[in-house]
Amino acid sequence: MEKPHIAVLPSPGFTHLVPILEFSKRLLRLLPEFHITCFIPSIGAPPSSSKDYLQTLPPTITSIFLPHITLDQNPHPSLLAFQIEHSVNLSLPYVRQELESLCSRAKVVALVVDVFANGALDFAKELNLSSYIYLPQSAMLLSLYLYSSKVDEILSSKSRDPQEPIMLPGCVPIFSTDLPAPFQNLSSVAYKGFLERSKRFHVPDGIFMNTFLELESGAIRALHEQFKGKPGIYPVGPITQMGSIDHENGVECLRWLDKQEPKSVLYISFGSGGTLSRDQLNELAFGLELSGQKFLWVVRAPSSTVSSAYLVTESKDPLQFLPHGFLERTKEQGLVVPSWAPQIQVLGHSATGGFLSHCGWNSVLESVVQGVPVIAWPLFAEQSLNAAMLTNDLKVAVRPKINHSGLAEREEIAKVVRGLMEEKEGKEIRKRMELLKIAAANAIKEDGSSTKTLSDMAESFRGF
Ligand code: UDP
């Protein structure tokens, strides 16, 4: 028999692969006698970013690519969550085959699946494995999933005042506009999908989340009290990746930052695939110019769909969409790079003093870990929820006002950029972010809250 195993199932896409494998690496540090086998589903051929990343894994993690599927079988091509979930569902027969084969040759104690790969949880029951969801996000999002039937009742009530915020136990009040995109239309397929997915959160033995007690103490304590271990709720973060400058823009970004004053640069990025409309891209360009602040901007070609670059590689040169003369006028003020920057290294650089972010959860945690205050600019998924937490609860972010056409105008952008980078408000925000940075580091120290949670889990895996 081989070493005892834990099976791991991410869902397709670089940003769903890395978090669960970074979690796996951390788990293995506490369970050196174990081996992890990761089954990798993908839409089309796996992206090179994923393949490169897999090369960096230790020998105690084996990755097995499942036959990839094609998207033309997808009933809802415009819905990202559906694309991902649907592609995992199409891969389930392969998952089952691989899992059965693994169980026949090794002692498999647990199956850990990404939130969109929840379809595989049933196999764990059949094969007598303990089962877990890895939610690479916040306790606030988990609360929304676990309380979604109650929230649905409230939102569906005819007598409800739409201005009244939703109160999730232990969380900051959430205005309807800050609920994740599916909640913006209660009769949409996306909303029904969210409710369906929510039910699956009651299936596994436990849920790991990439957050930590000191960041979301209210939400985490309320979840523990309410669910009393069924399912078990385990905050194990912050788990962030090491990052790499091994990319054509990497060295250029860091060299440019080396020449800037400490904490003087605003870094701007909308994650691995967030995109702005043409009008918004224009306003942002003029707003940055108007602010007079130094900036490092990762630019993507504009699109009318906010997540359009998420699963496909860009083919157009994004810089051609910038306003006429912008690059020339701002050549002393900023650096613009197409599509990608080494974010971890950029946020860790002493010249970086602010982050205009779409508030994807990885970006949020990376900012917290490096103590960089945020301008919150959510685009899709649960990013508005994260923005509300950063702005209204933790008070480590500011948020530009959006006009009646849904645009943040250039004057508003310039105002919030200056506010964060130069003014008193920004200094207060920076101080609070510094404290969170210390709390994040403490959570993953040997005696930290997240390490303790994970050690207890490791001990229980040994006992299975
Ligand atoms: N990222 C990066 N360079 C970029 C854009 C993104 O390294 O130019 C990384 C970033 O560090 C983070 C991830 O990609 O780890 C984005 O994850 P997040 O959850 O913030 O957003 P998503 O891509 O899922 O929308």
From TrEMBL:
The cross-references to InterPro entries, in alphabetical order and at most eight, read: UDP_glucos_trans (IPR002213), UDP_glycos_trans_CS (IPR035595)
Source organism (scientific name) = Sphenostylis stenocarpa
Cite the Pfam families for this sequence.
UDPGT
Q: Which SUPFAM superfamilies match?
A: UDP-Glycosyltransferase/glycogen phosphorylase
Give the protein name, as stated in the record: Glycosyltransferase
Kindly give the Gene3D superfamilies that the UniProt entry links to this protein. Answer: Glycogen Phosphorylase B
Give the enzyme's EC designation.
Answer: 2.4.1.-
Stored PANTHER family: GLYCOSYLTRANSFERASE, UDP-GLYCOSYLTRANSFERASE 72B1
Enzyme class of the recorded protein, top EC level: transferase
The molecular function terms of the Gene Ontology recorded here are:
UDP-glycosyltransferase activity
State if DNA repair is listed as a keyword: no
Concerning its family, UniProt says: Belongs to the UDP-glycosyltransferase family.
Report keywords, A-Z: Glycosyltransferase, Transferase
